[in-house]
Write a structure and sequence with these properties.
By secondary structure, this protein is of the alpha+beta class. The chain is built from 4 helices and 9 strands. Helices cover about 40% and strands about 20% of the residues.
């Protein structure tokens, strides 16, 4: 198998396997970008290592780059509010009989809107599975023209317990 074909196979396979880590756009861009850069670097290193094994280097580099890129992109999605478009998609595995109370909201200053089409998302306390973390308010361009409202993370009572719902767009 030639190096170009191996490179494309590695990129596609890594993108498919790690692209499902999160649903946000940064996760998917991170996977593809990381896999491409990793495959290229791996192919160059493998080819120049003396045994001219660029194909193996491309496969290993694509896998490592895709995983790293997806992880970094996923953390950005969670920091910015991963793209969920319904409460069903945003439902987590965090279930409690009685959730811990969130601290009171912090006082925020809303700065000027950076341009048309931006939506202000108020700051909120997000539960990370162990504690609440404050997410600052910010102007965000909705991910798609059909989404206009952002629903902040919250607890929802379901059948005798509470389930944590991540933020989502509608």
């Amino acid at each position: 198998m030639n190096t170009a074909k191996t490179f494309l196979t590695a990129l596609a396979l890594t993108g498919l396997l790690t692209g499902c880590v999160g649903t946000g756009p940064n996760t998917q861009q991170g996977v593809v970008g990381g896999a491409a850069l990793g495959a290229l670097a791996g192919a160059i290193i493998g080819n120049n290592s003396g045994n001219h094994n660029g194909a193996s280097g491309a496969l290993i580099g694509a896998a490592a780059g895709g995983l790293l890129g997806g992880t970094i992109g996923n953390s950005l999605d969670h920091e910015r509010g991963t793209l969920y478009t319904s409460p069903e998609q945003a439902t987590t595995n965090v279930v409690m009989v009685q959730p811990p109370p969130a601290p009171p909201p912090r006082r925020e200053v809303v700065v000027y809107q950076p341009g048309p089409g931006f939506v202000w998302i108020n700051g909120y306390w997000a539960f990370d599975g162990a504690q609440y973390v404050w997410i600052e308010g910010r102007w965000v361009r909705p991910p798609h023209r059909r989404y206009h409202s952002y629903y902040a993370p919250h607890w929802e009572h379901r059948g005798g317990s509470y389930v944590y719902i991540q933020g989502y767009w509608r």
